[in-house]
Write a structure and sequence with these properties.
Blueprint (H helix, E strand, L loop, with lengths): L38 H4 L1 H11 L12 E2 L6 E3 L2 E7 L10 H10 L3 H12 L5 E5 L5 H7 L7 H12 L7 H4 L3 H5 L4 H7 L31 H28 L2
Antiparallel strand pairs: 1-2, 2-3, 3-4
Length: 253
Amino acid sequence: MKSIISLKDVDVNYDFTLDTPNYYDNYWKNEMGSGNDDPDTYSKKLKTYHKLIWSKKLPNGEYLNLDYGKNGKYLIWKDFSFVSDSITASFRYANNTQFMHKVIETIPNYKEFILDYVHRSYTIGGSIIFPKRSLGVNPARGINKYICDRFDLTLECIRKYYLNEESPLYSVLIKDKEFFDLFVNFKGYIDYFFLNDLVTEDYKEVKFIIGNGDFEKNPMPKTVEDYIKYINGQLEFVKLRNERIKEYIKNIK
């Protein structure tokens, strides 16, 4: 697969569901709404954007030069194989149906609400790459009962990792030590992936969208009010991250 665009052609507002085959087919087959093929796997434009944006100088002085993988590999560099991961979550899971019924009953025009969320969250600001590994960061943060796919809590685990502190994902993160060493420290990781709006200016704390980051069991929103707050908080972060990526591209010579 060859890139047919340059970094300057990247549109930070492009919705990757639009070039994901069959994504909206029978979308409302259940009342919560559910896409089909995953943009993280099937959007060719998302893969190209990842390749273009993250191929740059690393904090450790090396240059990350991503290439398209073969035989099922997404993106590669040296001995690393990477996957795309959405960093937003709407908690529309089968085991969360009872709570989502309350959301559906409470939010006027629920379908419009969800589709707006999908269109805005599936932009480049809502996506990142992680090393591919069986039960690596990507799948582990989704199934861990103390993380439940929340990226703010994932980022707190990464912050603690760089301090050599325990967290619900420490045993997973340590397996990718070679990857995290590329960024030297937490600040290097944050700056490289334009995640600044989810941490304090001194990089010492993560800004949690809801809750206090204490890794409580099942940290998903428990009230409709918190659900709306979390959805809106994610979308605001994606918007700000898109702006940072756009500014980075604008300044590339």
